[in-house]
Amino acid sequence: MGAPIRVAVAGAAGRMGATVCGAVEGATGMELTGRADPALDTTLADVLPEADVVVDFTRPDTALENALQCVRAGVHVVIGTTGFDVEPLRAEHGANVFIAPNFAIGAVLMMQFAAQAAEHFPKAEIIELHHDRKLDAPSGTAARTADLMRPAMDADVPIHSVRLPGLVAHQEVIFGGLEETLTIRHDSLGRQSFMPGVLLAVRRVASLTSSPLIGLEHLL
Predict the structure, then answer these.
(1) Residue pair 220/105 in contact by the 8 Å Cβ criterion
(2) Distance between CA 93 and CA 196 in Å, rounded?
(3) Is 123 a catalytic residue?
(4) What is the pTM of this model?
(5) How far apart (Å, rounded) are the C-alpha atoms in residues 6 and 52?
(6) Which residue out of 131, 134, 160, 218 is catalytically annotated?
(7) pLDDT for 39-52, tens place per residue?
(8) Model confidence over 120-168: pLDDT tens digits?
(9) Which CATH number fits domain 5-99+192-218: 3.30.40.10, 3.40.50.720, 3.65.10.10, 3.90.550.10?
(10) Which of 130, 131, 170, 218 is catalytic?
(11) What share of the chain in percent tops pLDDT 90?
């Protein structure tokens, strides 16, 4: 067995970040080497020297700069933050960047099923529902789903965003046809639902053949 993958987490004091820290600590072949968060008085620069991979669950206004800092330091980065422009990362080649709008396996399957159904229905709309602390709307998952559906649809795919306490992450895609409808829905009932996908990305990011790579479906 080789050396464990050294993992640092940006946004470690947040709910997702704290869940990622726990998952890494419990995973085989990984070592949690740093927690970066203003609430912990630690910066990304503090944890980079001891990391092979950084997992970023921060904010849309900081994720890009964090990723650039990681890549320029030769550290791979796995990003779960959405709502920022990834184009500046295409010019960086010091390390790999993997971005997933959603790390839940079921959500990835939901997006794939929606893309398949789009070939058979004339219209569809997306409703995405998240907790009231989520900053971006529409969600990255909804935007990605619409992108996957759009080539097969004759019409645009409207997205409706709901932000309420009590929710985690939920999405349904409703298709309408001749006297019938089809609804494809996915529900994340807790943040642990994202952890298998996060750990998969941590294990695979160093071996990516293109960067940045967007979408967990590429790793399944």
Answers:
(1) yes
(2) 27
(3) no
(4) 0.85
(5) 5
(6) 134
(7) 999 999 999 999 99
(8) 999 999 999 999 988 789 998 999 999 999 999 988 999 999 999 999 9
(9) 3.40.50.720
(10) 130
(11) 88
CB 69 within 8 A of CB 48: yes
Full 3-state SS string of the chain: CCCCEEEEEECCCCHHHHHHHHHHHHCCCEEEEEEEEHHHCECHHHHHHHCCEEEECCCHHHHHHHHHHHHHCCCEEEECCCCCCCHHHHHCCCCCEEECCCCCHHHHHHHHHHHHHCCCCCEEEEEEEECCCCCCCCCHHHHHHHHHHHHHCCCCCCEEEEECCCCCEEEEEEEEECCEEEEEEEEECCHHHHHHHHHHHHHHHHHCCCCCEECHHHCC
Domain boundaries, the chain: 5-99+192-218, 105-189
* CA–CA dist 27, 44 (Å, integer): 22
In terms of Cα–Cα distance, which of 47, 88, 86, 99 is closest to 205? 99
128: left (phi over 0), alpha (psi -120 to 50) or beta: beta
- φ, ψ of residue 41 to 5 degrees: the values are 60, 35
Query: Which architecture characterizes domain 105-189 according to CATH?
Result: 2-Layer Sandwich (3.30)
Annotated active-site residue 134? The verdict is yes
